[in-house]
Amino acid sequence: MSMLLNPCRSRLSQRRFFHQTPDFRRMAAMHREDKEMHHISCSKMDKFPKLMKRYFETTAVMHANGLIPFLHAQSSIMRAAPIFLETLTGRSDATHFKYFRDPSKEFQVDREALWNKIVSSDFEVSSHILSMSYSIFESQPEESANYFAFSNSSIDQQTGIEAGTRAIAASLRRRSLQSQIPDIMKVIQRFQEDYAQLKLGTLYLIGVPKESLDRFVYDSEAYGKPTGLDVRQVIDRYAFSNWNHKAPQARLMLYDETMDARCGLVAVDISDAKETERYIQLCETRSLESSELFSFFFPDQCSEVEEEDQRKRTQIDAEVRLFANKIADCARDKQR
Q1: Burial (Cβ within 10 Å: 0-12, 13-18, ≥19) of residue 8
Q2: How many separate domains does the chain show?
Q3: How many CB atoms lie under 10 A from the CB of residue 308?
Q4: What is the pLDDT of residue 77?
Q5: What is the rounded CA–CA span in Å between residue 128 and residue 112?
């Protein structure tokens, strides 16, 4: 009998899973070794119970579908460019694959060449790697997805804005809309300013296929230097067996294979309630245990801060998509 048809067996399996996750282990270590740090970490999260419920449930769903979840967060000011480009180009999010870098010839590099560059360089190869956290309970300032999500900031915020602006301009030129670029950029800038006023940054949950984990991800020091540790062992025991204040980090390598939408990577914008729900429905799987094990984050009444932040985010997202669709219509008219 399948687990979906046997709730008792499914609950036991999911309970075992949650007790093995980096989230559960880190939470337990913090509570045991540093209750003050545990309180600080949890006090931020319990102001956003809907977000946290989506996070824990999506984590469980990813695991049930053979994916290892990691977190990436950035300032909401950087949302405008990818949403605009995805709408303009008609890229569907049905598979929940995201281009965290604008596709270009720069990423037509194989893994070996990129890895050699990473291990031999004294500087972070930031264009070809994406910072990730193992657990939401890591909250080290400027070193964790938790910090960037709840502070609505990014360590490379200006670089991200500039890269997004260049990608938009290039896409508009390909559509013979170069004369409209200055006016379009003024509108994009207004969207960015609106996003900057939100309380929360954008929190992504990135699911890496288990069979591809060693090829796609490595354990990292700050600024992307490899630690040399086996990423599977870090998940299993290393970073979470002993308490310390160092925030463990990982890096997703961005090269020809991982820039291909067929590679099996899944990215869900946990900040977007509709996108999260679409992913869970697509998987036809729901978590039976996450709400129970982490129920202290889910009060009966959600905070006004979260409700207002979600309302504003949804409104701005819709405005960006509407604007992008208008530009797409304009481009089609020019081609006729």
Answers
A1: exposed
A2: 1
A3: 12
A4: 94
A5: 13
Asked whether 249 and 72 are in contact (CB, 8 A), the reply is no
Distance between CA atoms of residues 116 and 318, nearest Å: 42
For 262-289, letters b (16+ CB in 10 Å) and e give ebbbbbbbbbbeebbeebbeebebebbb
User: 224 — alpha (psi -120 to 50), left (phi > 0) or beta?
Assistant: left
The Cα–Cα gap between 166 and 163 comes to 5
Q: What is the pTM of this model?
A: 0.87
**Three-state secondary-structure class, residue 138:** coil
Helices and strands, number each (H, E), in the chain: 15, 6
Q: Which two tokens stand for residue 62?
A: 């990813």
Specify the pLDDT at position 292: 61
Place of tokens 């997703």: 252
CA 203 to mean position of chain CA atoms: 5
**pLDDT of 251:** 96
Domain that holds residue 112: 3-335
Q: Identify the pLDDT of residue 20.
A: 56
- Collect contacts of 153-157 with beta carbons under 8 A, ≥24 apart: 153/75, 153/201, 154/73, 154/74, 154/75, 154/77, 154/78, 154/201, 155/131, 156/126, 157/74, 157/75, 157/77, 157/78
List all residues 6 or more positions away from 116 whose beta carbon is below 8 Å from its beta carbon: none
What is d(CA 201, CA 99) in angstroms, rounded to the nearest whole number? 18
CA distance 292 to 15: 10
Question: DSSP letters of 148-193?
Answer: HHHHT--TTHHHHHHHHHHHHHHHHHHTT-GGGHHHHHHHHHHHHH
CB 136 within 8 Å of CB 300: no
